[in-house]
Design goal:
This protein is an alpha/beta fold. The chain is built from 9 helices and 6 strands. The structure holds zinc ion (ZN) (2 copies). The site of one zinc ion has 8 residues, from α3.
């Protein structure tokens, strides 16, 4: 399902097109420092060095521990009853990675979601995570929705923005309204694992009449304990999906840096 584009997306597309046209006459440059760089990379090697990648062989659910031999999951995750089949992120929410995500989620006043450099860096990280997702490509990409009140306040849903580019790049159908957030839950910042779980419990519902395909990529910008993704996955699985893989640009630690807003 491809809903009508909004104004912000139109200008993003316009920016993309102008960038493409510019590249015909000007060499591609790093999104952070502006030096010439490889046209396939969004950052030059020096700026990319500020991002800390998650080990490609980390457990495919908690992303922390090494998996058991012959399995993509660590011993703890193998026995967990997570509704997520897997959860993959590309970078740690630290140093350079945290700065890019903050800039993407809270663009300078007046940009209203249009910070193209940070959107392309965070979007590229999401694509890296997708390339490492286990199993075949899914049949649908769904973003974790914001509550309508938060969407009005922020003006855009960061997860939907990167999920849409991911779906385009991998040529997978995208459904930004498959899920809705029924409760405006307080921020998860500062809560422990158990509090996070109860804070978002039952916060998502699938769209009435939704008949999801079997395999879904569920996108959020940052994952910490997977509580939010798990709740959203429950709603998709209740509607009939059998495999829900969480994909995120970054993974934050419970006691690590958090969003300052
Ligand atoms: Zn650079
Ligand atoms: Zn694990």
């Amino acid at each position: 399902m491809w809903p009508k584009r909004n104004g912000a997306e139109f200008f993003c597309k316009l920016a993309e097109l102008s960038r493409g046209a510019l590249e015909l006459v000007l060499p591609p440059t790093c999104g952070a420092c502006g030096t010439r760089t490889d046209p396939t990379a969004v950052l030059c090697p020096a700026c990319d060095g500020w991002l800390e990648r998650i080990a490609p062989r980390a457990c495919q659910l908690c992303q922390e521990t090494a998996p058991q031999t012959g399995s993509g999951l660590c011993a703890g995750c193998e026995t967990s009853d997570s509704p997520l089949t897997a959860c993959v992120a590309a970078i740690r929410f630290e140093a350079g990675g945290a700065e890019w995500i903050h800039r993407f989620k809270y663009p300078r006043k007046g940009l209203r979601g249009l910070d193209p450099a940070s959107a392309s860096v965070v979007g590229a990280m999401l694509c890296e995570a997708a390339a490492r997702a286990p199993g075949p490509q899914p049949d649908l990409v769904v973003p974790v929705p914001l509550h309508p009140r938060r969407l009005r306040l922020r003006g855009f849903n960061p997860s939907a923005q990167i999920a849409r580019s991911l779906a385009r790049k991998f040529e997978i159908p995208f459904d930004p309204v498959a899920l809705r957030r029924t409760r405006d839950t307080p921020s998860q910042t500062g809560l422990d694992r158990r509090e996070r779980r109860s804070n978002v419990r039952g916060a998502f519902r699938s769209r009435r009449g939704l008949q999801p395909p079997e395999r879904i990529w569920l996108v959020d910008d940052v994952v910490t304990t997977t509580s939010t993704l798990a709740e959203a996955a429950i709603a998709l699985r209740t509607a009939g999906a059998s495999t829900v893989i969480g994909l995120c640009a970054a993974r934050a630690l419970l006691d690590g840096p958090s969003m300052s807003r």
